Amino acid sequence: MNLRVFSACLLGGFSLQVFAQSPTIAIKVDQVGYLPAAPKLAMFVPQAASAAPRKAFSIRKPEGNSAVFSGSLSDPVLDSDTNDSVQIADFSEFKQTGNFYLQIDGVGRSWNFRIAPDVFKRAYYLTMRSYYGQRCGTEVNLGSEFPGYRHGICHVKGGFDPSAGKAGDHASAYGWHDAGDYGRYVVNGGITTGTLLWAWELYGDSADKLSLNLPESANGQPDILNEIRWNLEWMLSMQDSDGGVWHKQTSDHFCAFIMPDRDTLPSVVVGTGAAPFKSSCATADFAAVMAIAARDYRRFDATFAKRCLQAATQAWAWLKNNPNVTFKNPPGVSTGDYGDRSCGDEELWAAAELLRTTKQPEFGQYFLAHYREYLDSVRPVNPQSWPMVAPLALYTYVLGNGGDKEAAEAIRQKTLAAADAIALRTHQHPYRISLTASDYVWGSNAVAANYSMQLLIANRFQPNTQYRNAAMDNLHYLLGRNSFSLSWVTQLGENAFRHPHHRPSAADGLDLPWPGLLSGGPNPGRQDSVMKKLLSPDTPRGKMYVDQTGAYACNEVAINWNAPLVFVLAFLN
Q1: Domain ranges for the chain
Q2: What is the rounded distance in angstroms from the CA atom of residue 542 to the CA atom of residue 557?
Q3: pTM value > 0.90
Q4: Taking the domain 25-115, which CATH number applies?
Q5: What is the residue-level pLDDT of the chain in tens, covering all 573 positions?
Q6: Fewest CB atoms less than 10 Å from the CB: which of 257, 366, 501, 538?
């Protein structure tokens, strides 16, 4: 057991050393905390495989280490994803607010956590504000709260790659750096921006009360919409005069690990390489997002909302003539691809969002002609993701009171049946997470967050405590209740991961990474050399993770991974 000197005092001429235990990774808690009336579970896994199970635990206050609650640990259950023998400490009955830790005699103590009604306010603030840190085309400064986290104006030189079908200069402003790199991608930016706009639509009553300390704060518009607009403005710049939308704006290859303002590679608009040069998936994602924006910004900026709706309808007109122009990187371009074999799911999403915003029959007719092809995309496995956005189309049809009762009821039943299965699976998992064996992929942590989003949408259709609890369980996993006893959000929790594959975090010379970023998480694919060197292929899939900058297959960050996490935190606030 690791000990550290906590304090020293003199008593009767003798020096008395008082020791306090350091937290042990054998005890796994949500390092942010728990809501007072919600279930509260922690997990214990002996660090030695031969160690005997423990019987009891206590909840204690850091001030004085006094016990305020005690309980019994469950019998151990083997988790096949990690090979951990997991015991559960259930302290749901304890509803006192404050700061606490969990103690197991003979083992040690957990990291500190808090119980409070606003316990996730800080988590929402950091994860949503992380988008400000990802801004492109401007200087960024996180301010006195995070001194030194700043960079100058970046990527000011822009133009067209020959694959775009145009030549000359093109504005390089606005948008978010996509991930650990400095590219901007309409497809991935689309599901990201759409998810965040949905968070505003469903939970804006709480989100609009929290300042994100942005340059635009206090302008009369909620800060979540202020930040989202930064990416909307870039997306609007990617629409051609014929209504089609180019796929991405990046350099032709990834730059070195340098700060954004040190990257002098031209940021060029990249197209398909042949007429019509724009891609259908990007154009349809664009149409869907602009349709959402048109209704969300209407009461704050009617002119901007009108501009978004016009862009969405122009994109739809282009799609009618170009329904399946797919994308792959043209020769000489090696940045992120975000290619897709079919754009039908994106077009269904565009039709559903345009219908919800405009109520025009054309969009309803398209939706009803195609939705059955995608009903099975709402299922207990593989939640929505950038290659498959059809669930968002189906959900928004119901959320927007789509006019066909048969279609709406079919979607509702699919959604609730999937949520029932996910909630049951989550409850039965030793770590209380929704992930299946096949979900441990590149970005597995985002899969967990997207399951929570799926559950909360089902909860919107039909309120269900089990859906809400399972959604929170995945959040607890991401914030420390996992095999590593590690918070997978930078600078959130006492034991947060420290070395994301994120260029500013690696290049700024600061000890800690940029705050509020979600790690990709365990990935048995081991697509990078660091993972292949440090992790045996026999490592359990749930432990295929290493906190190193070079381990991009498990430790990169991405805007679309943060978005469902923000969605869940907006609900909990």
Answers
A1: 25-115, 121-379+388-487+556-572
A2: 18
A3: yes
A4: 2.60.40.10
A5: 333 333 333 333 333 333 357 999 999 999 999 999 999 999 999 988 778 899 999 999 999 999 999 999 999 999 999 999 999 999 999 999 999 999 999 999 999 999 999 999 999 999 999 999 999 999 999 999 999 999 999 998 889 999 999 999 998 899 999 999 999 999 999 999 999 999 999 998 777 778 999 999 999 999 999 999 999 999 999 999 999 999 999 999 999 999 999 999 999 999 999 999 999 999 999 999 999 999 999 999 999 999 999 999 999 999 999 999 999 999 999 999 999 999 999 999 999 999 999 999 999 999 999 999 999 999 999 999 999 999 999 999 999 999 999 999 999 999 999 999 999 999 999 999 999 999 999 999 999 999 999 999 999 999 999 999 999 999 999 999 999 999 999 999 999 999 999 999 999 999 999 999 999 999 999 999 999 999 999 999 999 999 999 999 999 999 999 999 999 999 998
A6: 538
Residues with catalytic annotation? 181, 501, 547, 556
Single-letter code of the amino acid located at 342: S
Please report the DSSP string for 10-71 in residue order: EETTEEEEEEEEPB-TTEE--SSEE-TTS--EEEE--SSTTPPPP-EEEEE-TTTT-EEEEE
Place of tokens 């800080």: 122
- The answer regarding whether domain 121-379+388-487+556-572 maps to CATH 1.10.40.60 reads no
